[in-house]
Amino acid sequence: MIRRVALFLGSLLVVAAIWELYKLIGPAAGGTVFGARLLPRAQDSAMPHVWDMVSRFGDPERRGSDRANWRVVLAAAWFSFRLALAGFAIGTLLGMGLAMVMARFKVVERGLLPYLVMSQTVPLIALAPLVATWGGKVQVGEWVWPRWMSAAVLGAFLAFFPVAVGALRGFASAPSASVELMRSYAATWRATFLKLSFPASVPYLVPALKLAATSSVIGVVVAEISTALRGGIGRLIVEYAQQSTGDPTKLFTAIFGAAALGLLMAGLVSCFEYVMMRNRPRPEEDERALDTIRREALT
Amino acid sequence: MTRRRLLTSLGPPIVFGLAFLGLWEAVVRGFDLKPYFLSAPSKIVEAIGDNVDNVWDATVVSGTNALVGLVIGTLLGVAVSFALMRFRVLDDLVTPLAVALNAIPIFVLVTVFNNMFAITSEVPRRLMVTIVVYFIVLVNVAKGLRQVQPTHLELLRSYAASPTAVLSKARIPNAVPYLFTALRIAAPAAVITAFVAEYFGGSQNGLGYGITSNSAGSKNAVAWAYVVGACTLGLVFFLIAVSLESYINTRRGLGPGGGTT
Amino acid sequence: MSEHRAVVVDGVSKVFNRGTPRQVEALVDIDLTVGGGEFVSLIGPSGCGKSTLLRLVANLIEPSTGEVLVAGKDAPRARLDQEYGMAFQQAGLFDWRSVARNVELPLELKGWDGSRRRRRALEMLQLVKLTDFADHKPWQLSGGMQQRVAIARALAAHPRLLLMDEPFGALDEMTREHMQAELLRICAETETSVVFVTHSIPEAVYLSDRVVVMSPRPGRITEIIDVDLGPSRTVETREDASYFKKITEVREALRAGEDDRETEAVVAEERSSR
Fold it and tell me: Does the domain spanning B64-251 belong to CATH 1.10.3720.10?
């Protein structure tokens, strides 16, 4: 465990080293390879030094402001995190609910499964700007659709599909010998589901949840950009990108914030995985389940 | 396939699909929903008809970016995977990085790339797609090269086969299905990355821009037309990857699913 | 039986993970000779080290002490010179190659040219009676047929020694008996020596000239039993009184080996509690 963390940090150092190395030898104004402008600009305004990026966190957010940069980034990341979490939770619940319905009624499964599978190949995230426009304009009686809800909805939407696919596969993964055993006990569908199908689905659920967590974060970030949602990390990134001619390192602080957000969500799911899989035989099942999910699901 | 089988397997999806579209249309008309909320399917079809040329142009732009990134990312990924197979240390360094990158919204790096290259260049988007595809292919192919059946390795050792022979006779053939698994994921991912990257500025000529610029106000249905274009592109890329896999598998004499059917 | 000694194992022992808490003494003090054209079985309870011993002969692992000679050379040299062919419990055929191309594999590695390889592969497939399946894929064949291909592959380069690690373990009883008869026929035709690992007593007796009985871990040779049922074994052999007597003899030797181990353990415990 320690080793993995150490190696991860090591790989980050290697990336940083490559970055700095390019800065050292790369053309300041960018260059051409085979006639195409393929070499990036190595000057500080385009590629700041790594240590400058890190130190930027400590400086004030903007000239004249008394809030340090890291506070702003942290607040934005926290804002987006809550949205991503909400989206993830809703998407997961709905996904599992649908999977249960599909497991119970074969007709529903046959009818919807092709669309579920297709959803994994189709860029659902294309709908982000469309959902984003609901903010502030949709009204149900007195209540106006809050802008942040678009982000949560999109996150939920993207999380829903991998969970539905994963849960369904998981329910189906119970060994047929066990299913026959339950039949020999004249167990009801409900009892079989609770005692067999659901526990058997966990190794498939876990990788699906990881995928859903990532998808939720992506959905929220993209929705924030489309809505220019104030307070979110997505908008912060776009803002800082626009300000980067004057303040090149600020952009990176926001990016690190977004990365931290993603890692936090992934970390949560890993904790959940640890708790659920403690008493289970591990790696091969995990790998096989992960491969099945991967084959059908993607960001 | 018998008619009955065909009916039971195709029937429900078609019924559900039509019912869904019908419901959509009815809800929009019945509640008189404003276009900026949801457009009716009929309006969308109309919009597609009116804007075919624009949507097509945008699709070509995004599609080219996705394709360039897919091809280069795959080639690089395959090339480096050999290094990962050979040097365990590299594998230990790269894998946690790949896992972490999987978890974060990596496409935000496009903003950095936009600064590193000219604002009108397509390179930032292509670079982004390349990176995303690269890691997917790298991790999967490296796994395929490494995880050969122990019996095969023992057999080749009993033949005193050189490492190169083991590579060409066992590892590479073993890794081919892994490459296709990677492509099945990477192809749609390339499309998604290509047009999400467009949300971050840069030249305004792709599907992403088409969707965002039309989504507000009365041109909502046009935005949907671009969405349909994007979905079609993603589906096409995926189908190409799958057919390529199927073709190679039949040539190798394996079932289209790859392996022992 | 010629004077040629196919395998000589001299004072061999094998310890895994020496010096760590996971240290395992797999084999102790093994002395064994296999003559030219001889069929020798290694039999013993699970974990007795018979597969380890086979792998030592194959130079897939190195002994901790002692010496292994194959065809008069030391084991690494013998492996590099391809003095033996090997068959494992899983047939281990390459899915992506046809049956014939699978048999050609060792010949490819030896650098033979295409037509010569193809001829030899078909020759071997004829030996195992699978010529009709030369261009099929492994997954189109049954388990028994796949093992036959594995045997054809093991013999493709005409080695004088065949090493087999429970190759029929995954097959049903009837296929197994059939394969045993086929194996004897093939080995008689090619005059190959065989070292055969199994944990089926009837299989060991039916196939072998000598049966090497091993004790539980750490594996020692309890006894080497001569099987004098005559050079050609047939279906009738399986119903012969002397066949059953040999089986009983092997079974008793196995039991004796286990009892020895138990006695040792009991004695050791009494000694330590005094």
Answer: yes
**Is the Cβ–Cβ distance between C187 and C87 less than 8 Å?**
no
Cα–chain-centroid distance for residue C102? 21
Q: Which residues of B touch A137 (CB under 8 A)?
A: 34, 36-37
Distance from CA of B126 to the nearest CA of A (A): 11
CB crowding B8-33: b at 16 or more within 10 Å, else e: eeeebbeebeeeeeeebeeebeeeee
**pTM for the model:** 0.80
Q: Of A215, A228, A224, A236, nearest to A74 (Cα)? A: A236
| Angle (deg, nearest 10), helices A198-227 and B88-103 | 70
Q: Chain B closest CA to A175's CA: distance in Å?
A: 20
- CB-nearest partner of A291 from B102, B181, B201: B181
**Gap between the Cα atoms of C11 and C80, Å rounded:** 23
d(CA B51, CA B43): 12
pLDDT in tens, C89-122: 888 888 888 999 999 988 988 889 999 999 999 9
Average pLDDT over residues C190-195: 92
Say if the Cβ atoms of B158 and C95 lie within 8 Å: no
Q: How many contacts does B have with C, using Cβ atoms within 8 A?
A: 52
Which of A16, A155, A44, A140 is closest to A94 using CA atoms?
A155
Residue-wise DSSP of chain A: -HHHHHHHHHHHHHHHHHHHHHHHHS-TT-EEETTEEEEPP-STTTS--HHHHHHHTTSBSSTT--SBHHHHHHHHHHHHHHHHHHHHHHHHHHHHHHHHHHHH-HHHHHHHHHHHHHHTTS-GGGGHHHHHTTTTT-EETTEE--HHHHHHHHHHHHHHHHHHHHHHHHHHTS-HHHHHHHHHTT--HHHHIIIIIHHHHHHHHHHHHHHHHHHHHHHHHHHHHHHT-TTSHHHHHHHHHHTTTT-HHHHHHHHHHHHHHHHHHHHHHHHHHHHHTTTS--HHHHHHHHHHHHHH---
Token pair of C19 as six digits: 């010096």
- A-B contacts (CB, under 8 Å): 178
Over residues B207-214, the mean pLDDT reads 80
Q: Which range, A146-150, B48-52, B145-149, is most confident?
A: B145-149
- Residue-range domain boundaries for chain B: 64-251
Q: Are C30 and C214 in contact (CB under 8 A)?
A: no
Is there a contact between A126 and B113 if contact means CB atoms under 8 Å apart?
Answer: no
In terms of Cα–Cα distance, which of A298, A201, C90, A277 is closest to B140?
A298
Calpha distance A227→A13 (Å, rounded):
35
CA–CA separation, B225 and B81 (whole Å): 40
**How far is C-alpha C172 from the geometric centre of its chain's CA atoms?**
19
CA A68 distance to own-chain centroid: 27
> Is the per-residue pLDDT at C195 higher than 60?
yes
Q: Which residue has the tokens 């089988």?
A: B5
Identify the three-state secondary structure at position B110. Answer: helix
